[in-house]
Design a protein that fits this description.
There is one protein chain. By secondary structure, this protein is α+β, with helices and mostly antiparallel strands. It has three helices and three strands; from the N terminus they run ββαβαα. It has a three-stranded antiparallel β-sheet. The longest helix has 21 residues. Belongs to the prokaryotic/mitochondrial release factor family. Keywords: Hydrolase. GO terms for molecular function: peptidyl-tRNA hydrolase activity; ribosome binding; translation release factor activity.
């Protein structure tokens, strides 16, 4: 798991929703911005993989943007936004294992054919005969 938190920039805004005394005064919501194109922590291949996997979350300027406003303090929201962005990017870098094609065993094939034959006989017995 690569840590590129030193490349992340932060922007604060006022949190939405019910608030109390601090609702119109304190900027506790944090937006973490990371420039995918200008990173120095990843190779070109890894950057391309991130671009493909997170294309819906990356803006036209190449910024990956994650917001956090769950907590009442800016510091906790900043920590949460950082964790979210690190998890997103590190999950995008995971290469899934290739699926190996397997054939059904002879006993499975025989079992399936026997079940079909049994069902066919059951339906054949339901037919009305003159």
């Amino acid at each position: 798991m690569k840590d590129f938190s030193n490349e992340i920039k932060y922007k604060t805004t006022r949190s939405s929703g019910a608030g109390g005394q601090n609702v119109n005064k304190v900027e506790t919501a944090v937006t973490a911005l990371w420039n995918v194109e200008e990173t120095e922590c990843f190779s070109e291949l890894e950057i391309e993989r991130i671009r493909v996997k997170l294309k819906n979350k990356i803006s036209a300027e190449g910024l990956l943007q994650v917001s956090a406003s769950e907590y009442r303090t800016q510091l906790q929201n900043k920590k949460l936004a950082t964790e979210k962005i690190l998890i997103l990017v590190n999950q995008a870098l995971i290469i899934p294992k290739k699926r190996l094609k397997t054939k059904p065993s002879k006993s499975q094939i025989e079992k399936r054919l026997q079940a079909k034959k049994k069902m066919s006989e059951k339906k054949e017995q339901r037919k009305f005969r003159y």
